[in-house]
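dumping this here before i forget
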Amino acid sequence: MTDAQTTSTELSRRRRIREEVDGSLRSDVRLLGELLGRVLADAGGPELLDDVEHLRALTIAAYEDGDLARFEEAERLVASFSPERAEQVARAFTAYFHLVNLAEEQHRIRRLRGRDVKGRAEGRTDTFAGAIAHLVDEVGEEETQRRVQQLRFHPVLTAHPTEARRPAVSSAIRRIAELLAVRDDPRIGYSTAVENERRLLEEIDILWRTSPLRSTRPTPLDEVRTAMNVFDTTLFQVLPQVYRKLDDWLLGTDAGRAPSRAPAFVRFGSWIGADRDGNPYVTAKVTRKAASIASEHILLGYEHAANRIGRTLTLSADDAPPSPALLELWARQRSLSEDAAGDIDLRSHTEPHRRALLFVAERIVATRLRNADLSYADPDELLDDLNVIQSSLRDGGAARAASGELQHLIWQVQTFGFHLAELEVRQHSKVHRQALAELEAGGERSEMTEEVLEVFRTIKTLQKRFGVDAARRYIVSFTQSAQDLENVYTLAARALGSPEKAPVLDVIPLFETFADLENSTDILAGLIELEPVQQRLAATGRKLEVMLGYSDSSKDVGPVSATLALYSAQSRIAEWAKENDIELTLFHGRGGALGRGGGPANEAVLAQPPGSVDGRFKLTEQGEVIFAQYGDRMIAARHLEQMASATLLASAPSNEERNHAASVRFSALARRLDEVSRARFFELVRADGFAQWFGQVTPQEEVGLLALGSRPARRGLSLESLEDLRAIPWVFAWTQARINLTGWFGLGSALAAVGDIEALRSAYAEWPLFRTMIDNVEMSLAKTDERLARRYLALGLRDDLAQLVLDEMELTRRWVLTTSGHAELLDGRPVLQRAVRLRSPYVDALSLLQLRALREIRATGSTDATDAPHRLMLLAVNGVAAGLQNTG
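structure:
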C-alpha cells in the first residue's frame, strides 16, 4: 500500500492509538521522555532539543496522517543537520527507545503481578495450573504426573551478534529500571518520589553521555561474562521460584511441608565460548576458561546460599532431633577437617542441621578453590549431603524447614550442577574433513588441525573436573552424511590416543539446508549404525538429539518453504525415532527475528508435529532475546512457565490430533505454497548480481563494522554469493532497511496462486502451523515501511529487483490480511499492534538518519569506519535495533 492509498479509516485508527495505551504505561513514557528532554537541553542546549522535537513531530505527523509532504520535510531536516548534530539526534532517539523499552517492560511486570492475583490465571493453558488441568482431563491424573516428571525445557544461550547494546549501556538501563520500579510502590512518599526523580535524571544523563558504540569488538570471554550477569542477577534466583510454583500446584494443601513433587525440569546449555564454527577467536583455551568462569559463578552462588540457609537452621536437637544418617554425616565431616568442624561446632553445638549445612558450605568453598582434601568430587556428592540434611529435618518433625529454602538449594544443584550451563561445542563438518585428511596424509600438522584435536582433549579435561554433563554434546554444522558424524569420533580417538580414552560424546547432527533436511532420516539411519553411537544409545536408554537450523534453511529456500520443510523434516524424524525405539529430542536453532524462526515461542511449540516434542523442548536463545526473556526475574519466571506449559501441552492428544489432521487435510495447500513461494524467492536471490545488489540496498557491509560480537559476519571473504554470508547478518541487514524481506518474501505470490479465500481462511482457523506463519508475517509486515523501503532499494540502481521486492510486499500484505480476515495488520494482537504503531514514527526518524549516512557512504565510496557517515550509520543501527527489538 502506497502513501496515497492509505485509507482514512487507517489514519483515524493510528490517531486513536495513543489514547488506547494504558494510563500507567503512558505516564511512565511521558515521565521518561520529559526527563530525557531535560537531559538533552542541559547537554546540548535548547537547540538540540528543538531539533529532536521538530523531527519527532514531523515523523509522527507523516505516519499518523499519511502525509508524504511531512515525510519529505523530515528527510530534508535530517539532510540539513551538521554531522555532529546528526549524531546527537540519532543518540537521542536511541536513548528514547531504551527508555520506552523499559517502560514497556515495567508495564509487562505490572500486568503479570495483576494476573497473579488468585484465580485470575487458572483458566489459561499457558500456566502450570491450566496446562496440568487440561492434561488431567485428557489423559488422567496418573499419566499427567508421569509426564510432569519427565518434562524437560532446555534453553541454550548463544553469542550470535544481534544484541547491539554495549554492556555499559545495558548496565545504565538496568539501573533506570530499578528506579522506575520504585515508583510503582503505593507507599512511596513525596520526599522519596523527589529523590527518585533526581536519581532518574542522573542515570538518564549517564545513559546519554555513555557512547553507544563499542570501541573494540568483544572477545568470546567478554560474551561469557555478559551471560554470567544474567545467571547471577536473574536465573539463579528464578529457577527455584518457578519450581516452587509448580510444586505448590501439584501438592495443593500439602505445599510447603510434603516432599517436593516438582522436578528440576530446566537445563541450560551455552555455545558462548564453545561455538567455533567460523569463529577463529574461540579456541580450546577459551573454552577451558569459559567453563572455569561459569563454575566459579555457580559455586559462589551455592556457597552464599548454603551459608545463608545454614544460618537460619537454628532448630535445636531437642525440637528437631538429628537422624542417625545426619550424625553419621557430621562424623564424616569432622574427619575431613577437625579445624573447620570445630569452629562450626562452637557456634552451633546444639543445632545439628545448621552445623551440617555450614560444613557443606565449607566444602563448596573448597570445591571452588580446588582444595582436593575437602572438595566435592561431583554435584551428586553434594546432593547426597543435602538430601541427608533434608531427610533428617523431615524425620525430626521440621517438615516446613525441610521443604523451604533448603529445597530451593537442592533444585539449584540439580539444575546447574558444578558447570552452570553445559558447554556445547559446535564445528563445521568441512573442518573435520580437512583435519582428518591432513592426519591421514601424515607430515606436519597445520594449526587448524592441532586446534581441532586440542578441543577433544579440553572436553576430556572439563568432564574430569566438572562432570560428564559439563561438556558432552558436540554439534556438527552442515551435516550432510553419517560420515560427517563418524569423523568426530575418529578425531576424538586420535586426539586422546584411543577410543577408550576419548571423552564421552553425544554427536549431534545439525541439518541446515533444504537438501540436508530432506536427507535427514537417511543420515540418521547411518548414524545409529556407528559403534560409538550404539554404545551411547545403550548407556542413555536410547536417547538421541537432532538439531534443526532455521536460519540457513530460510536463506536457502525462503521463509515459507523453510517453515514447511522444517515441519516435514520433524514429522519424518519423529516417525523414524518411533520406529527405531529412540527417545528423540529435537533442538531448534531459533533466533529472535522472524526470518530465523522467531515470534512467540510458546505458540511455535504447540504447532510442532505429533511426536516431535513428547515433553522435551530445546532451543537456542540469542542476542536481544536473552535479555528480553531473562533480564527481569518476573518476566523470566513467566517465560519459563509458558514454555514448560506449552511443552506439556504439545503432546496432549487433542493438540497432536489437531496438528496431524491439519497436516493431512492441507497437504495439497502446503505443496502449492512451497512450490510457488520457493520459485518466487529464487527469482529474486538467483537473479544476476543479486548478492552485490543486496550489499548496496542494505547496510550489510556497514553492520559488519559494528562491534556486536566476536564472530565474523561471513564464513568467507567476499559477497560474490550468499553462501558465505551468515544467516544472522542476512536477516539483520534486511531488518535495518525496514524491509524485513526474510520474514515474508514469497508468501504473497503463494497465497495468490492458491486463490481460494475460503480454503485459506479454513487453514488459518484449523492449521496451527499455518496460523503461526501468517501471524508472524503480519508482525514482520507491521514493522516494514514502504516509504523507507523504496529509498533503500533505490540505492541499488536495479529497478527490476526493487520493483520485484515492492510488488511482493504489497501482494503479501493484501493476501495475508485476506487470509486472516483482519482489517489491519496485527488486529489479532492489539497490544503488539499499539506498541508497533507507537514506535514506528520514532524508528522512521532513525531510519532517515541511517539513509543519510548510507547515501554519503555510497556517494564517496568511503571504507573508513571512523569517519562521520560511518559513525552516524552505526549509531542509527543501534537505534533501529532498540526500536524494532526482534532484529536478529
